[in-house]
Amino acid sequence: MAQVARHVAAPPERVFGILADGWTYAGWVVGASHIRAVDPHWPAPGSRIHHAVGPWPLVIRDTTTVRELTTGHRLLLRVRIWPVGEGDVEFVVDPEPGGIGCTLTMTETIVTGPWQLLGPVTDPLLHARNVATLDRLAALAEHREHAE
Fold it and tell me: What residues of the chain score a pLDDT lower than 70?
């Protein structure tokens, strides 16, 4: 399991708005190379993002499915990247008292597939990847007000 958290100097609603926009995922999820389609009711439970992962021509096409949603606060996803495996990724957005910012926490757990067999060896890799992922998402949220 890899868990990372960081402060985001943006309102929680803006941060969750990025999570709720499936078309943005290739712009901030490290390793995602292309979003092929997003179900129209994303991020409702059961809806999916159809994505591509990896550099061309070694692209893996698969899906990410919403397992649970607490609008504005929590999003739990099942990410498939077969033949590598599947994982659960949870995002939690908590408002910080007395400010406009929030704390964004990302927890990733590999649940099946060959990647899971590597056990603790994968955790430092996932941790580093997820730090970069949250940095990208935070940059979008902190600078998005200019586009609103």
Answer: 145-148
Distance CA 147, CA 24 (A): 14
| Residue-level pLDDT at 56 | 87
- Which CATH number applies to 2-21+64-147: 3.20.20.70, 3.30.530.20, 3.40.50.150, 3.40.50.12780? 3.30.530.20
Q: Domain map of the chain by residue range? A: 2-21+64-147
Question: Strand (E) positions, 28-84?
Answer: 32-38, 48-53, 60-70, 74-81
Helix (H, G, I), strand (E, B) or coil at 134: helix
Query: Could you report the per-residue pLDDT of 119-148, keeping only the tens digit for each?
Result: 778 889 999 999 999 999 999 999 976 545
